[in-house]
Each structure stands twice: as structure tokens, then as C-alpha cells.
Amino acid sequence: MGIFKTRKNKAYSYTPRHYKGEGNPYEIKHKFDDFRTTVGSNKGLKGKLVTAINDYKSNQDQAVNKRVLIIIGILILIFLFIIDFDLSIFF
Question: What is the pTM of this model?
């Protein structure tokens, strides 16, 4: 029993008697899961980081990439302001 491992839910092969559709009616799935590479089983911290970086690199929308970099830059500046870092060394 690991401290940091999450339990997986039990899966049963039950099908309802009067269900006439495709797939499992009890499966909870987000509508964008087919297009994401970061959704899936837990692979550990390194695996999650690698898949997130690959997903970021494979993104073709450059405006989103610039927006993410601007947000990261602003958050870093706010952090430096909070810890009273002297920004005059950059100028």
C-alpha cells in the first residue's frame, strides 16, 4: 500500500438489460479526451511533465503559446516583487 499511489476503481462488465446504444452508458468521459495527450493513467511526475511538454510543443496555435509565456513572465515578476528582489540589476 503506497502512500502516494491512488487506488483505481473496480471495473465490472455489467451491461444494462434494455440498453441499445454504443459503448458503455456508465463511462464518464470528457468530450475533449480524444484530442488530449495528457489524459490517461498516472505515469508519475516525470511522465506527466514529458507529456505536457510534448503537448505544448505539438500545439500549432502560436498565439496560445505566446499567451502562456506572457502569463509565466508576469507570475515570475510578481513572485520576485513579493520576495523583495532587487530588479535594478536588470537595468
Answer: 0.40
3-state secondary structure the chain: CCCCCCCCCCCCCCCCCCCCCCCCCCCCCCCCCCCCCCCCCCCCHHHHHHHHHHHHHCCCCHHHHHHHHHHHHHHHHHHHHHCCCCHHHHC
What are the residues whose beta carbons fall under 8 Å from the beta carbon of 33, sequence distance 6 or more?
39
**Number of residues that this document lists for the chain:** 91
Q: Which residue has the higher pLDDT, 41 or 88?
A: 88
What are the angstrom distances between the C-alpha of 40 and each of 33, 50, 56, 64? 9, 13, 17, 23
| Cell numbers linked to 5 | 499511489
